[in-house]
Structure formats: C-alpha cells, structure tokens
Amino acid sequence: MTNYVAAYPQLLSSAVAAIFRGIGSNESEARLVAENLVLANLSGHDSHGVGLVPLYLDGVRAGIVQVNQRPTLVADSGVIVTLDAGMGFGQAIGHEAMELGISRVRDHGICLVAIRNSHHLGRIGHWGEQCAKAGYISTHYVNTLGLPPLVAPHGGSDARFATNPYCAALPGPRDQPVVLDMATSKIALGKVRVAMNKGIEVEADTLIDANGQPTNDPQVMYQSPIGAILPFGGHKGYGLGVIAELFAGALTGGGTYNACTSVTKVIHNNMLSIIFDPGKIGGSASWRDDVSHFVDWIKASPPGPNSHGVLVAGEPERMTQAERSKNGVPIDETTWTELCESARSVGVSSDILTASLIE
Prior knowledge:
The protein has 359 residues and is an alpha+beta fold.
C-alpha cells in the first residue's frame, strides 16, 4: 500500500509558491498558482493539486508555458469579451478573467467571457466559486488540447477528445455556494494518475486499452499506444463533452481536436464562461429563499441503503476541506518525491517542503 505524508496547508502553499518563484514567476503569480493547487488538494481533488507541479515546470522548460503572462483583450463588445491567454499559467489567467467578467456584470448584469490559449486552468469549480462569492451565477465550458486525445466517444473504441469539464455555480444558503464541477468523462485524467501513483486499480467501466478492451489498469493512459477514458453516463456524458468541445474550443477560437491537431504534451485550455446577476432577471426577489428551501427539501430525503445522507454539489469539497484543514493535506509518496525533485530542480531546497510536514 502506498505511504503518505501530511502537510500543513498554509506552509505547503508557501513552499509551492517558492518553487514557482524559482522557475521565474513573480510573487502574485506564484501565490495564485500555489494557493489554487493546494485548495484543490484541500477540497479532495488531488488530481488538480500539487501533484501537477512537475508537469507545469516541464511546460515552462519546453518554452510553451509563459511565466508572468497577462491575458490580451482581443474582442470587447461590453457584455462579451474574448481574452487570449498567451499560454500563461491558468490559475493567474483565470483569476484575472473572472475579475473582469464580474466587473462587467456589475455594469451590465451579464457577461460572457471567452478565454483561449491558456495553460491548465486547474479545478474549474474555483472559478465558479469566485463568481458565487461576488453574488453571481456562472456556467463554464472547457476543452483541453495539447495532450493526446483522452476520451472515447460513445460507441467508439479509441480516444478522440479530452475530459472537457463543465461547471455551474450559484450562491447558496448560509454563504455556501452550490457548485457543480465535473469532467464529462467517467473520471479526470488526474484521477487516473493518482490511482497509478497509489498503485490501485480504477473502477470497472472507466477505461479501455489501446485495443478498445475494458481494463482497470490506470497505466494504459500513460503508455504508447494510449488507452481511453469512457464518458460518464454513456451517450449523455459524451454529448455534454462534445458541447464543451464546441463551445470552449470552436467558439472561443482556441481550437478543437481534429486530424490536424498537434500534440505538445502540455495542457492547453479554452473556456467559455457566462456570468450573470440573478437580481437582474426580474420577478426573482425571492430566489435566495427558493434556493435555500429547495436545498433543505432534497437534503431531508431519508438516507438510502449504504448512504450517510443526501449532499448537494459543493458539500463534499467543503467537508473534505474542513477535515484536511484540521489534519493536514495527505500526499502520496510518489507525488511527494516528485515535488521535492521539482523544488531542487529550480534551486529551491526541499527543506522548505519538509518544513510543511506534520510530524
């Protein structure tokens, strides 16, 4: 069984920020990237957490990911803005883009933000939470290029597009937003990587190998020829994944998978976000009460077999965050070794990471 260490979140974040400063990020960018990654771990999404640091550094060294890159405004009609990220770090690009969108919602009540050519935007729920904190509702469609195709279309036997996340978020009762954030595949690629690092199998009906045959072995996604992840819910997840590809890739101008798509092995994200002020819809002064009453109603359903009760989207993350804030962020041995090697590779002593560990 894989061994683990546990780290204090704030100290881990400081250590990760030091690694990004070592690769050239300014203080603001290093902090945004580090806090975003550690928050993903805190929320229970280790697939989008500090285990990505080595991949991010590889992207910079390859000359593809650009440190301290600011987005360029390439189209602006007031309520619709298009930003070219220039392959900057998605955690910094996403934060700035959502802040721009939020400011436009204050002026106009709604804003569509198109982001193209960004490095990995991380956990998309983070952007939904940012909008919800401002009191607004948002929905986000994302596609991914750069990597080999990862997900098989329903009825197909090899990979043709990526895990294409979808997110929707709105302010909820007691200042706890309702945040649906999911890959349109059965699981995200990062969760396959986490399973491989842990030395465990994935659930049945999740992966197929390069011959199109079902497998539980996560290593098929890290071999050549590569296997494929299946869409969630058969044709339904496949259909939503296609919509995300077209909305985020084609409509933003960032591109889609096709026969001419180049593979750089560095994540390239595009995102189409719609943000709006629910108070501007009209006749909806009681919307917050309706949200609270509905959440209370569904959570009052008696627990089913093998269930601890009903949760709404966003609650599992908050529960995990409370537990990990108290007991530390668990990091598997493989990821910890890679993280320490990443620090040393940019001239940062791994002692700064070791100092974050809980004895």
